[in-house]
From TrEMBL:
Protein name per the record: 3-oxoacyl-[acyl-carrier protein] reductase
InterPro entries: NAD(P)-bd_dom_sf, Sc_DH/Rdtase_CS, SDR_fam
Keyword Transmembrane helix found: no
Keywords tagged on the record: Oxidoreductase
Gene3D superfamilies per record: NAD(P)-binding Rossmann-like Domain (3.40.50.720)
One MF term in the entry's GO annotations: oxidoreductase activity, acting on the CH-OH group of donors, NAD or NADP as acceptor
CDD domains, per database record: SDR_c
Any single biological process term in GO: fatty acid elongation
Domain of life per record: Bacteria
Family designation: Belongs to the short-chain dehydrogenases/reductases (SDR) family.
Amino acid sequence: MSRVALITGGGGDIGAATGRALAAAGWIVVLADLDAEAARAAAEDIAGAEGRFLDVADTGSFPAFVDGIGADHGRVDALVCAAGVEPPHTLADLDVAAWDHTLEVNLRGPALLAQATLPWWRRAGGGSLVNIGSRTWLGGAHPAYAASKAGLVGLTRSLALELAGLGVRVNAVAPSFVPTRFARQRGDAAVVAEFAEQVRRTSPLGRLVTPEDVAAAVAFLVSDGAAMITGEVLHVCGGTQLPAFPRRAVPA
Ligand SMILES: NC(=O)c1ccc[n+]([C@@H]2O[C@H](COP(=O)([O-])OP(=O)(O)OC[C@H]3O[C@@H](n4cnc5c(N)ncnc54)[C@H](O)[C@@H]3O)[C@@H](O)[C@H]2O)c1
């Protein structure tokens, strides 16, 4: 019986790429997104996948939502939390609404979705959770966003310990800048292009991260090849997480 993965933010670029990677590895994939149309459109290109509406800020809907997937497919093995928001702000213009919304989508959502998935992990005798974090947990960004992604690392490590006895592995993938629709929150096309070029120029591996790079890391972490890996943060950022960043000259 194929294993089943629920991917939030599945209508987005990283979520959809992750859906393609997991489907290629034999998983049944449910792409869930606030933008249900985008999730359904992404699922159309993936054999055996489907798109569903989910608002990860609406915690009350989680148990019925996850149970619905379990009822339809017989199991829920992997939860990949890729839904995210990054409303731009500085400390000076930070308001309560932006703070709360960032934290409820990026941090509270994954915690309570994992809680709703727990009965299905118990039933299956194990499973896997992958949270899509961000390199900003180390390097900083808009304060609420960086705080939410740093919090996600704390959540990942805590749940890795709490759920290990159930055979559930919990990891995070932390990308640097990926040129997706997400970047549009930063400003207009010229601002985004300038930022992207700056990241590319200063990246030790010399190119930008793609959604497929992130998806490949997730596909590995949910696979049996990662059976002894839990509580990790896998940086997918071309070396920009290293203290030696920016790049050193190659020795002659
Ligand atoms: N793009 C980057 O530079 C980058 C870098 C590091 C980490 N990330 C993280 O990767 C994840 C995916 O980002 P992406 O680049 O694919 O962006 P994206 O904008 O393409 O996808 C994000 C998706 O999340 C969905 N979403 C937003 N709020 C939601 C809610 N309340 N309920 C359900 N879905 C909701 C959006 O509709 C969108 O489809 C995010 O968690 C983001 O923080 C992105």
